[in-house]
User: Fold this.
Amino acid sequence: MWTGPRLDVSFRHRIGGLDLEIEFSLTRPWTVLFAPSGAGKSTVLRVIAGLERPQWGRIVSRVEGKTEVLMDSDARVFVPAWRRQVRLVAQQAALLPHWNVARNVLYGIKPLDMMIVKPSDSAGFKMRLVREVLALCRVPELEAKMPSELSGGERQRVALAQCLAAQDGRALLLDEPFSALDAGLRDEMMTDLKAWPIENKTPVLHVTHDVGEVFRSGAEVIRMEGGRVVAQGEASVVLADERERLLRQLETR
Amino acid sequence: MDWEAVGLTARLAAVTTVLLMLLAIPLARWLASGGGWPRAMVQALVGLPLVLPPTVLGFYLLVDLGPLTPVGRGLIWVLGHPLAFSFSGLVVGSMLYSLPFAVQPMVAGFASVDRRLGETASMLGKSPERIFRDITYPLARRSVLTAAVLAFTHTVGEFGVVLMLGGNIPGATRTMSIALYDQVQDGRYSEANRTALVLLLVAFAALALLYGRQDRKGRELV
Assistant:
């Protein structure tokens, strides 16, 4: 039973000829949002993160019985992105170009996190944290590199490490986080990351268009089609038709 | 050489640049943060000194800040003397006159910083002020330097506003460009030559400093 933060999302938004009418709840540590490319998945994440203002919406976070309204068009509430504690790792992640990877990763940690550490040990604590999250994101030993020296995939994973290091979020939103990885590395990293939301009490919403990735994640699936949520539940049920289609494709090959 | 005028000009340019940057940095930050009519209007106002004859600006300041208007009377009450024909009057006039030279480079500089960097930082809980301090300002530092150098140099070279608003009081409002005008009027050509040369060298050195700080690809070297 998940006791960490929950997130109720519902909004209507029109963007570039696409009508989105979205309603779902995050009630588990790991949830996958599945939709084909160009279905507006990234927009859904941007709306939740507060980077995009929908025409109408209500987004509520519930932590230990306390309710925090992140946005409510009817009540004219719009908490700005930087105060939502909802962390989005974009597909085209942008790192701060004038700082090296280690400094980028440490940018989001709060001074409060440092208070439990003795000042004399703070540098060591920071270095351990950087190494730990970079290893978890499968980009070890990059800490001294500058962002311009990284590939697009590496940049995205450093951006993920940045959000993991920041901690105490209400939700972590991942936009196609494994798209630049080969299958073996992806499965390894996914397995390692699955423990993170439980340890850190932060639910993960993982967006993908890859059916295989959904099944391997073993998580609950929200299926989006034509700008709407059409189903939410076990992958084997929600994506039964997609699975059939893939299997048929394999047979005909 | 009219050393009094040299000292006054340097002081005027320095005071104007400092005060102007304090005003222009937040203004440029706001102008670079989006579009819309209010910003377009403000940007047009800021750009006016680029196209208006400086005498027009000087004339309006002289009339509007004089003892016949409420604003002028308020200033007299605060300063104890009218703004016109005083050093503080010159500072106000110079700030307005050099405003576009300080604001425009910074608007361009701040706007050229990738918006996604700000989004990254806001995802880590950083406020707009922190984002400006940690990201926008350091990445657009060159444009801030450009703005300051242009504001300083442009103030050194102003003539029309100073003449209208300041008159020609030695030690109080007679700047180098006005001293030069006097020297020519009086037929003191060798003196005028030296004054003109100093003004030319200051302007050239400032521009050389600006362009010298970037390599051929326009990147900052320092």
Remarks:
- Residues 139 and 154 of chain A are 7 Å apart (CA to CA).
- The radius of gyration of chain A is 19 Å.
- The mean pLDDT of chain A is 89.
